[in-house]
From TrEMBL:
Residue ranges of coiled coil: none
Keywords: Hydrolase, Signal
Domain Alpha-N-acetylglucosaminidase N-terminal: 30-117
PANTHER family, alphabetized: ALPHA-N-ACETYLGLUCOSAMINIDASE
Protein name per Swiss-Prot or TrEMBL: Alpha-N-acetylglucosaminidase
InterPro entries: GH (IPR017853), Hex-like_dom2 (IPR029018), NAGLU (IPR007781), NAGLU_C (IPR024732), NAGLU_N (IPR024240), NAGLU_tim-barrel (IPR024733)
Pfam families membership: NAGLU, NAGLU_C, NAGLU_N
BP terms from Gene Ontology: carbohydrate derivative metabolic process; system development
Domain spans labelled Alpha-N-acetylglucosaminidase tim-barrel: 131-466
Annotated source species: Balaenoptera acutorostrata
Keyword NADP: no
Alpha-N-acetylglucosaminidase C-terminal domain location: 475-734
Keyword RNA-binding set for record: no
Length: 744
């Protein structure tokens, strides 16, 4: 059977099992009309006619939209086979016919009048069944403090970008609390088990327990309410929400109630000791396993309903207790059996990260044991990091199980310009054409969002394309024109430079995890190499500043100017660090003081001021979202500390230090800059006193600074301050000439 036919057959199997065509056409059309009114306002929205008809996809069975009409006195007609398809068609019209841009950082929606006509009726069908969105970690790195207003914006963004499959994992701890109480645990035991809000993603995957908890009772109530609204809105568009299922991890306290149960304590995770990790895994043969699994899923679906796709990850970044295929097959089959005991139509969505993360453990026999333990078509695998390290290639397309080609792109929600756009552009087509391919969709699975929007714009578009974009240079030029609402030569040239540099990472070493010295605890062994020519970033900075007379009124342009200025400063920090390190190793005090002084006392404070000029780069906003989620001042302080810890120490002892680093105004000034000042002062003292630099002692002193920041209650502005263009120009005029002259 040809590759495309195999994928289509599996797609239809999943389509049937998931009840993908269920739902009310009128309700989905109404949801898209309401989205349109929120996006454009009621007046402009009246110029569009939106309808949903399943019959549009009768031939292919795949989401399809049709555009027609427009022009003088005529409404634009948008027809979709689902609400999501109609929303994607609407987005296509706004993007390609009106030059509009929808983005996290703010949309550019200036409509031409009259609305342009669609010259010929345009019908487009997606090449695959699914367009997936989210990573389990996104729930903690980006969504954790969101209210309904912010969720509404995100679901609108999802619909416009054609997303029809997404995690919906809020509120599950409230369901688990009911299950644990029914099993005989005390409220105290339950409270001791759950992590704090900012770390729930890793509690849900069994990596952590207890750390930074407990969850207040109000948390459960608010998350239940939020989950109902999220599900209602997602379903109104015809999206398929993925609910959680039981993966096998249980609280240790369960052994008090059932002392004879067969459990295995897993190894530690993320440099945490067993006070917070080393989770307990229920043996697949234990009779309590199906009881716990069915209790949870029954209570969950009773509360929230179901769309029959469930996520569970038993061995995420944790080595199984046995490599025997028989054990791995039993552990996998038991999770699935607990699902179908409650929902006979259940499909298991599995993050394929485990196969990529520990390839030395997951050999062909081990991978085969997992993939073969679930009936074919009932396990849907996310090839999570396919743009860099695709697993489908070395597993014969997941041995016949359907998979979704995912772009992971971002780790920890870090800031930092990064992308592998060429790999992203060509990857889905290559996977679709792979021999006997079982690919059934594309996906975006970042750990954190709100960064590098060009990457996500491309990936979302590829979900509707059968072939790669032919000319990425032309594509990114059009992206810039739509984003800013006007074509500008200098801005577009800047974007082409970024495309060939920061967005042109290639090979297995590409990872969207910012390891710049700026956001790392300093040492004398820091890596500063990058995969691109730094001069491209500095030149793009110059070109964006040259465009300010025309584009400074565009909020998206000002956001990008801050982001590129931030990146330029990041490059300069690396260069000044190299100078300071060389001076120290050569025992040259004056050059050390000069380079160290510029880095710690000039560059970083100037960066903080630039970041403070844009609402998307404020620590104050980040922390305020956490505080607003609380119902008391005590809760507000608790949530704020959760948030501060995740951004920095990520554990009681800096266990995953700076993994979730961000470049935010306030965080640079009060966390990164003091650490760099301490480092440079320690190096100077070392030379003056003639004593060796002791990294271990510096780490202890730095930890005191880091911990002080986490425990601080200082409030930060949640509104931007200062003029972005003016601040960026001052930085540029001070440092760009030095860079050109080679005299930093």
């Amino acid at each position: 059977m040809e590759a495309v036919a195999v994928a289509a057959a599996l797609g239809f199997l999943l389509l049937t099992a998931a009840g993908g065509s269920a739902g009310d056409e009128a309700r989905e059309a109404a949801a898209v009309k309401e989205l349109l009114a929120r996006l454009l306002g009621p007046g402009p929205a009246a110029a569009f006619s939106v309808s949903v008809e399943r019959a549009l996809a009768a031939e292919s069975g795949l989401d399809t939209y049709r555009l027609s009409g427009g022009g003088v006195g005529a409404r634009v007609r948008v027809l979709g086979s689902t609400g999501v398809a109609a929303a994607a068609g609407l987005h296509r019209y706004l993007r390609d016919f009106c030059g509009c841009h929808v983005a996290w950082s703010g949309s550019q929606l200036r409509l031409p009048q009259p609305l342009p006509a669609v010259p010929e009726e345009l019908t487009e069908a997606t090449p695959n069944r699914y367009r997936y969105y989210q990573n389990v970690c996104t729930q903690s790195y980006s969504f954790v403090w969101w209210d309904w207003a912010r969720w509404e914006q995100e679901i609108d963004w999802m619909a416009l970008n054609g997303i029809n499959l997404a995690l919906a994992w809020s509120g599950q701890e409230a369901i688990w609390q009911r299950v644990y109480l029914a099993l005989g645990l005390t409220q105290t035991e339950i409270d001791e088990y759950f992590t704090g809000p900012a770390f729930l993603a890793w509690g849900r995957m069994g990596n952590l327990h207890t750390w930074s908890g407990p969850l207040p009772p109000s948390w459960h109530l608010k998350q239940l309410y939020l989950q109902h609204r999220i599900l209602d809105r997602m379903r109104s568009f015809g999206m398929i929400p993925v609910l959680p299922a039981f993966a096998g991890h249980v609280p240790k306290a369960l052994t008090r109630v059932f002392p004879q149960i067969n459990i295995t304590q897993m190894g530690s995770w993320g440099h945490f000791n067993c006070s917070y990790s080393c989770s307990f895994l229920l043996a697949p043969e234990d009779p309590l396993f199906p009881i716990v699994g069915s209790l949870f899923l029954r209570e969950l679906t009773k509360e929230f309903g179901t769309d029959h796709i469930y996520g569970a990850d038993t061995f995420n970044e944790m080595q199984p207790p046995s490599s025997e295929p028989s054990y791995l097959a039993a552990a996998t089959a038991t999770v699935y059996q607990a699902m179908i005991a409650v929902d006979p139509d259940a499909i298991w969505l599995l993050q394929g990260w485990l196969f990529q993360h520990q390839p030395e453990f997951w050999g062909p026999a081990q991978v085969g044991a997992v993939l073969g333990a679930v009936p074919r078509g009932r396990l849907l695998v996310l090839d999570l990091f396919a743009e860099s390290q695709p697993v489908y290639v070395r597993t014969a397309s997941f041995q016949g199980q359907p998979f979704i080609w995912c772009m992971l792109h971002n780790f920890g929600g870090n800031h930092g310009l990064f992308g592998a756009l060429e790999s992203v552009n060509r990857g889905p087509t290559a996977a679709r054409l792979f021999p006997n391919s079982t690919m059934v969709g594309t996906g975006m699975a970042p750990e954190g969002i709100g960064q590098n929007e060009v990457v996500y714009a491309l990936m979302a578009e590829l979900g509707w394309r059968k072939d790669p974009v032919a000319d990425l240079g032309a594509w990114v030029t059009g992206f810039a024109a739509r984003r800013y609402g006007v074509s500008h030569g200098a801005a577009e040239a800047a974007w082409r430079l970024l495309l060939r540099s920061v967005y042109n990472c290639s090979g297995e070493g590409c990872s969207g995890h910012n390891r710049s010295p700026l956001v790392r605890r300093p040492s004398l062994q820091m890596a500063t190499a990058v995969w691109y020519n730094r001069s491209d970033v500095l030149e793009a900075w110059r070109l964006l500043l040259a465009a300010t007379p025309t584009l400074a009124t565009s909020p998206a342009f000002c956001h990008d100017l801050v982001d590129v200025t931030r990146q330029a400063v990041q490059e300069l920090v690396s260069l000044y660090y190299e100078e300071a390190r060389t001076a120290y190793l050569n025992k040259e005090l004056v050059p050390l003081m000069r380079a160290g002084g510029v880095l710690a006392y000039e560059l970083l404070p100037a960066l903080d001021k630039v970041l403070a000029s844009d609402s998307h780069f404020l620590l104050g906003s980040w922390l305020e979202r956490a505080r607003v989620a609380a119902v008391s001042e005590t809760e507000a302080r608790f949530y704020e500390q959760n948030s501060r810890c995740q951004l920095t120490l990520w554990g009681p002892e800096g266990n995953i230090l700076d993994y979730a680093n961000k470049q935010l105004a306030g965080l640079v000034a009060d966390y990164y800059a003091p650490r760099w000042r301490l480092f440079m002062e320690t190096l100077v003292e070392s030379l003056v006193r003639g004593i060796p630099f002791q990294q271990h002692q510096f780490d202890k002193n730095a930890f005191q600074l880091e911990q002080t920041f986490v425990l601080s209650t200082r409030r930060y502005p949640s509104q931007p301050q200062g003029d972005t263009v003016d601040l960026a120009k001052k930085l540029f005029l001070k440092y760009y000439p030095r860079w050109v002259a080679g005299a930093l």
